[in-house]
Amino acid sequence: MRLGVIRKRADFVAANHAVRVARPGFVLLVRPGVQAVDQVRFGVTVTRKIGNAVCRNRMKRRFRALLRDILPTQGIGGADHVLIGREGGVERDFALLRAELEAALARVAAGKGDPPRKPRPGGKR
Q1: What is the per-residue pLDDT for 20?
Q2: Distance (Å, whole) CA 2 – CA 45
Q3: Contact (CB, 8 A) for 80 and 34
Q4: pTM over cut 0.90
Q5: Which end of the chain is more exposed for a tag (fewer CB within 10 A), N or C?
């Protein structure tokens, strides 16, 4: 499969309403049926809550390397994949992150996402 990169904010926002699988180091969002079947796109986002710029960029580099390695063989064809970094993701072992991502992709492929999040009271969404 060919890999592409998600660059537009609208694509990230649209992926937020897709299948969600949470893991200790990240949250995986997969929005199927967006691309051609032989193409897979991915994006990475890490909020400022995680740490300073050095920490966030390190986490994004690790996630990009992980996605470039795994998605061509195990990604969902024709889908957008978004990884959202979580608090402990930067310190996690790379092999453990890899195993968690493979398990999350297998869950999405089986059609088993986590239940939708409940809206925060009084919060923006």
Answers
A1: 92
A2: 21
A3: yes
A4: no
A5: C
For the four alpha carbons of 70, 75, 77 and 78, in that order, the dihedral sign comes to negative
Encode pLDDT of 41-77 as tens digits: 999 999 999 889 999 999 999 999 999 999 988 888 8
Per-residue pLDDT tens over the stretch 88-100: 778 888 999 999 9
Instruction: Give CA torsion, residues 125, 84, 28, 97, to 10 deg.
Output: -160
DSSP 8-state code for residue 53:
H
For the record, the structure tokens of 77 come out as: 């064809």
Q: How far apart are CA 1 and CA 21, in angstroms?
A: 22
CA distance 80 to 42: 6
Tell me the CA end-to-end span of the chain in Å, nearest whole number. Answer: 33
- Residue for token digits 């990230």? 12
In whole angstroms, give the CA distance from residue 19 to residue 81: 10
Is 64:94 a contact under the CB 8 Å cutoff? no
Residue with tokens 């992709």: 105
